Amino acid sequence: MTTPQSIPATLIPGDGIGPEIIDATLAVLDALGAPFQWDRQVAGLEGVKTAGDPLPPQTVASIRRTRLALKGPLETPSAGGYRSSNVRLREEFKLYANLRPARTLIPGGRFDNIDLVVVRENLEGLYIGHEHYIQIDDDPHAVAMATGVNTRQGSRRLLEFAFAHAVATGRKKVTIVHKANIMKALTGIFLETGLELYERKYKGKFALDTVIIDACAMKLVLNPWQFDVLVTTNLFGDILSDLVAGLVGGLGMTPGANIGADAAIFEAVHGSAPDIAGKGIANPTALMLASAMMLDHCGMKDLADRLRRGLNDTLNVDAIRTGDLGGRATSTEFTKALIARIANA
Ligand code: NAD
Fold first, then answer.
1. Rounded to an integer, what distance in angstroms lies between the CA atom of residue 126 and that of residue 235?
2. Three-class SS of residue 317?
3. Which uninterrupted H or E stretch holds 242?
4. DSSP-based three-state secondary structure for 190
5. CA distances from 28 to 237, 268, 336 (A)
6. Residue 262 pLDDT > 90, yes or no?
7. Alpha-carbon distance 283 to 248, whole Å?
8. Alpha carbon of 281 to those of 14, 30, 108, 325, 327: distances in Å?
């Protein structure tokens, strides 16, 4: 396959460890000869600081033009402050599918040979931000309320993506994760839509299973190998993908793709890690794996595979690892070793 000459893409370094892991990832993509032509933009806290907006219009305009972005983590203040720029980006570009693969990269851990994919609905559920307080007497926050919305169309679109992905990647089993025993309407509609879609279009192409979210969390810790693809609603997917990240060595190891009708944005599952920002010790692997997903998405599987092989060799043959994996390498030392591997591959 021939590598295209130039692919315009938006680059958002993000907050906290974002700029450090973005620099590391860019160095690796350069070493691979990846043809991205970057348009650098800001968002999150950096957007507020430099453009007075957590999602400046020029950032949105850039992604509208390129339809492709690599993004570092964006900080969102908890309780109060501005609304998450990540959620706004997903809404702006209708990024309805969040694909979060978790694969064991370093063998011999507590959980070996993990190869799971979480497909999370990215636009609906309890993430839509319809929240308010009710005042009672002199307490303005006496009652807090949130509205969740799942639609038949939104559920079907995401389930169709997950089922098609399972078929395209040769997966054997898909598990719909829900809480339809309690939230009978909100997550019942997702479950019901998935069962109907499977019967109508996917029966026989893979096995379908259903599980309640709380039992799923327990089963993932007891025996994660019983699962293959997990497909679920927004909030459950957010929680489960962190749990699954923990099975493969932590948040430093899991990438994510936000895929929609209008664009695709690639990022690490983890956040801005303010506790280690600026120390030069962040693990860039998750973002590098996200950039490999971006290469796959753009039809450059050969480069993506070289990157994944390089990561495997750096971590396992050279045993060069950052502190979160029990190693002593800085982000820069890790990146240099990876580039040497890629150069010699
Ligand atoms: P976090 O993922 O930033 O950090 C959790 C823990 O994991 C921390 O101890 C951190 O040091 C560690 N960690 C994370 N990534 C690491 C890496 N690459 N290498 C080594 N260690 C790593 O979660 P948090 O502290 O809950 O969130 C911090 C901020 O990030 C918040 O403002 C949150 O809203 C934001 N956030 C953004 C995204 C995103 O942009 N997609 C995702 C999650 C959280």
1. 6
2. helix
3. helix 234-247
4. helix
5. 30, 16, 9
6. no
7. 14
8. 17, 21, 23, 11, 10
> DSSP letter string over 135-149?
EETTEEEEEEEEEEE
Distances from the Cα of 51 to the Cαs of 45, 56, 70, in angstroms?
10, 7, 20
Cα(313) to centroid(ligand 1), Å: 26
This model's pTM is above 0.90: yes
Residue 9 pLDDT greater than 60, yes or no: yes
Residue nearest to atom 34 of ligand 1 (CA): 76
Q: Which two tokens stand for residue 265?
A: 């944005």
Q: Which long-range contacts (CB under 8 A, 24 or more apart) does 239-245 make?
A: 239/213, 240/118, 240/120, 240/177, 240/213, 240/216, 241/98, 241/100, 241/102, 241/118, 241/120, 241/269, 242/269, 243/217, 244/100, 244/102, 244/114, 244/116, 244/118, 244/220, 245/102, 245/269, 245/270
Give the number of the atom of ligand 1 that is nearest the alpha carbon of residue 275.
11
Asked whether 45 lines ligand 1 (CB < 6 A), one says no
Nearest to 86 by CA among 214, 228, 344, 266: 266
Return the CA Rg of the chain.
Answer: 20
169 CA → ligand 1 middle, Å:
29
| Residue 15 beta carbon below 6 angstroms from any ligand 1 atom | no
CA distance 118 to 250: 15
Measured in Å, residue 272 CA sits from the centre of ligand 1 at 4
Unique residue bearing structure tokens 């305009």: 61
Average pLDDT over residues 258-277: 95
Chain-centroid distance of CA 52 in Å reads 26
Does residue 76's CB lie within 6 angstroms of at least one atom of ligand 1?
A: yes
- Which has the closest alpha carbon to 231: 103, 124, 120? 120
Please give the mean pLDDT across all residues of the chain.
Answer: 95
